[in-house]
Structure prediction request, 248 residues.
Amino acid sequence: MNINISNANGEPIYLQIANQIKTLILEGKLKEGDALPSMRILATELRISFMTTKRAYEELERDGFIESYTGRGSFVKAQNLEIYREEQLKRIESLLVEASDTAQKAGITMQELHELLDLVNGGE
Amino acid sequence: MNINISNANGEPIYLQIANQIKTLILEGKLKEGDALPSMRILATELRISFMTTKRAYEELERDGFIESYTGRGSFVKAQNLEIYREEQLKRIESLLVEASDTAQKAGITMQELHELLDLVNGGE
DNA sequence: TAATTGTATATATAGAGGTTATACAATTCA
DNA sequence: TGAATTGTATAACCTCTATATATACAATTA
Prediction:
């Protein structure tokens, strides 16, 4: 496991860890059943408290990416991409609701909103 | 000026004040040149520190809705609706960028994004 | 049974946000 | 001109939240 953390970064350590592991899983570099390093070992490698690695793993567990068992370790779960997709859709929906509300108050039309959406998508 | 504040509400007092005045201006109930109550008078009415009303007025000033002059008072500015619109467009753009990025990572297509946008707009 | 793994509870620490107090400066107006 | 009124500036206080940690406990492994 190649995890890199930076103090300079404003992002909290536990999120840096969780996000990097999440990416490895989504990219298929970590697969169902794969064992993650134990919380204590990873913490020692990164020279941080193992409670911080625990926090990272909790985050991943909460999001359905891994499972942990006392005495055994932590393992990558079968990825339910459909559930992940649904969760992201919910997040996107709330963003769009806010955008839509703001637009309405400012007299910005739906057509403009759609055009803007195409515009920001093109720019990547 | 009929301003209502609530402690029960999680929204900070200075924002409650600023938003209510902002709405009055956008609805045309307060017009260019109209005098706002002095910070101290409004604070006394609302039984809060006048630094909190000042904070509210600063917010409104920052957003271009009012102007304040030492010794004279605070007044509604000529509304530049075009500037307001541009600012809201910027806010909307950043929301759409985030939505678009999230969609891309989750394999959600632009078409779905557009459909979702229509959907959330219809529901109001 | 010793070592390893995850869990639970409590604590410290820092930082941000919101509200307030107090002293200062400019304008008004009697 | 001088008192009253208005906005400004700086600092302090309080609360809440988030981050990271320490330490004791429980389950599994080998």
Residues 38-40, 54, 57, 68-74 of chain B lie near DNA strand D (CB under 10 Å from a C1'). Helices of chain B lie at 13-26, 39-46, 50-62, 81-105, 110-122. The two ends of chain B are 29 Å apart (CA to CA).
